[in-house]
Design a protein that fits this description.
Two copies of one chain form a homodimer. By secondary structure, chain A is an alpha/beta fold. Chain A has three domains: 2-127, Rossmann fold; 134-296, Dihydrodipicolinate Reductase, domain 2; 343-419, Alpha-Beta Plaits. Helices cover 36% and strands 23% of the residues of chain A. Chain A contains 14 helices and 16 strands. In chain A, strands 7, 8, 9, 10, 11, 12, 13, 14, 15 and 16 form a ten-stranded mixed sheet that branches. The first copy, chain A, is elongated. In chain A, 56% of the residues are buried. Chains A and B meet through α2, α6, β12 and α12 of A and α2, α6, β12 and α12 of B. β12 of chain A pairs antiparallel with β12 (288-295) of chain B.
Chain lengths: 422, 422
Amino acid sequence: MGLPGWARLGPGVVKIIRQKSHLLAVRGGRPVEISAVSARTRDKDRGVNLTSYAWEDDPVVLATRDDVDVFVELMGGSDGPAKAATEAALKAGKDVVTANKAMLAMHGQALAQLAEDNGAVLRFEAAVSGGIPVVKSLTEGLAGNEITRVLGVMNGTCNYILTRMESAGLPYDVVFEEANQLGYLEADPELDVGGIDAGHKLSLLSAVAFGTQVNFAGVELEGIGRIKIEDIRAVADMGYRIKLLGVAQMTGRGLEQRMSPCLVPETSPLGQLPGGTNMVVLEGDQVEQVVLRGPGAGEGPTASAVMGDVMDIARGLRVTTFGQPAATLTEATPAKSATPAPYYLRMALQDKPGALAKVAAVLAASGISIDQMRQYGHADEAAPVLIVTHKTQRAALDEALEAMQTTDVVVGAPVAFRIENL
Amino acid sequence: MGLPGWARLGPGVVKIIRQKSHLLAVRGGRPVEISAVSARTRDKDRGVNLTSYAWEDDPVVLATRDDVDVFVELMGGSDGPAKAATEAALKAGKDVVTANKAMLAMHGQALAQLAEDNGAVLRFEAAVSGGIPVVKSLTEGLAGNEITRVLGVMNGTCNYILTRMESAGLPYDVVFEEANQLGYLEADPELDVGGIDAGHKLSLLSAVAFGTQVNFAGVELEGIGRIKIEDIRAVADMGYRIKLLGVAQMTGRGLEQRMSPCLVPETSPLGQLPGGTNMVVLEGDQVEQVVLRGPGAGEGPTASAVMGDVMDIARGLRVTTFGQPAATLTEATPAKSATPAPYYLRMALQDKPGALAKVAAVLAASGISIDQMRQYGHADEAAPVLIVTHKTQRAALDEALEAMQTTDVVVGAPVAFRIENL
């Protein structure tokens, strides 16, 4: 086995292979050993001693060594060395286990095809929801189902930030900085808080669930950066919590994929989800609903997922990357959500007579009726107003939101979060 | 593929294979077809037309037909035709997929060995918690972990009865009869309400989790028949719900396996588990905790699990029954729980002065202190008294319970349920 990339994930895998060599050999039917390693710098202290393994400066060279059967890619990044080494490994007929959601979201189709063309397998359990065996459950456990919907909370950092904002009553910027200090954020934080990382994951689950080519560009993305502590307080008053929720669903109009802040009932399993935990809900025509919950990241959980894939390979279990031959994956037509839902709106209104009436009139003109409305005390000229609508189409809402900005009473752009009464 | 046994599960599997032949062939890389079927009576209406399949009166003959690669055993029963046909299939080198927890709980070790000796696989996802891919998650997804604990609610019928008792305020006997009318109970209801079925499942998960031979006899079993509506009301007052909870844990003293009514916080995921749903919690040294929730029974979910195993076989995925060679499974020494826990006690006390003091003295003599005590109004001579203890060893509690019955104030045998603050 060859291991490049050490930033956060390598040591966990090395520890398992070292400390559990007997257990792994018994379960896998053969020893699992590290042949060689690679990293950006050789002499950094990584908490594990690597001197007993061969060293390669170049991960591409590592990937194609004769004594490597399985290349474990933990470098990250959608292109660059990770992609080059993965391609080199697959071309050389080596199996690849990767935690790299960005690479698969961008190049999953080509890499899956490359693996098949070379009789290799390419597996990615660790790329989606850390330690939860969700790819395996979907690809294998539910293989007798037509999957009807996949949804869940797939980014632990965002869930940590939102949970912490609520529990500590702190604004987004402060908690964001805390998370940064704690090392919870990606080097480019937008990957986390912009919903991109979670969107990558959703696009991979969609491919497995619906037999479609990975289509990350088709994911409607919205991050958590616009969520204010006022939103969190207001929705709590109404019995909701805000989660960065992904939903993928095949419809007659095409594949709906969205990753965006949504309100969920605080008493629901998703609403109860604490801190860095992930939860994925798989719905199939036979199994109804299976819910999986577990740690979304971290050294141990990620290493657990990587080793699950490695052990499959040791045992001779060879599944195609997305559960069926790459050539049979169909192109997915992205579709906007057409399922009506209630929405939570926040806007700032000029403090003048008739302002609320104007907003109500704009909503009514788009056929949207109001379920709840709250206006809070305010110090400045613009008053925060919160509205929960009855069920409406997103298209009608977008029309109304646009129309609001042409009135002379709404200050700035209103914020709209979908309410999912799961 | 050959299918015997139709009671409740056969039609679901047939429907999937008929309606999804294209999907299954794409995913599995080969067509999945039914060659022949068998059942106790041929001409019963089962909601699916079986005339296109060859018919065998004898499941043993079915199991060994040349055109059968996979024998799907849905007959049930630990011995008799199910075991005979399973053995015949394995001896003939046919792979077997079974939903039969009783057979595996009794003969799992021998059958796993027989499968390996004949180059066949024997898989049982449908035997544990219906549609939830828990065996796969544990055997494969978490193969890089040392499993530290497995626990959960594994019998949907018991969970239905307990949930319904609480929501409708009905006594056990009435809800038991309702469940019977609805067809939720096994032909021998004691399998459900006596905790035996759930105990079978726990013993199978233990084997996979800890690499031990299945040891159903080592499961400490207690059913739900002693739970009264008064218990459910009283524990609800204290913020708890009663669940039939299974816990398996490897300790320095041996393998602890218990399946018994326990109090769990009503706000916990286990406490929130509704009706026929199952929840299994898998804890490993790397992954920390993964929770799986889904339907515990039913035609669709069970067929989903059966087809997961069948599709693995179609794809050429061949895992040993319990995740490692049968010969390497160690004998498990059963150990009684030595983890201290608080307990809920219910007893009937003679209505005479000093009765409560005597009970308190007995508990104190065993070193058990009382956290809460409630005495409810009563019509008869004996007054129901409910006690929640502080943490104590089960052995000390058993001693106290025995001593209580030698006093002249406790009427009948006290009831004790463990409190798990999960």
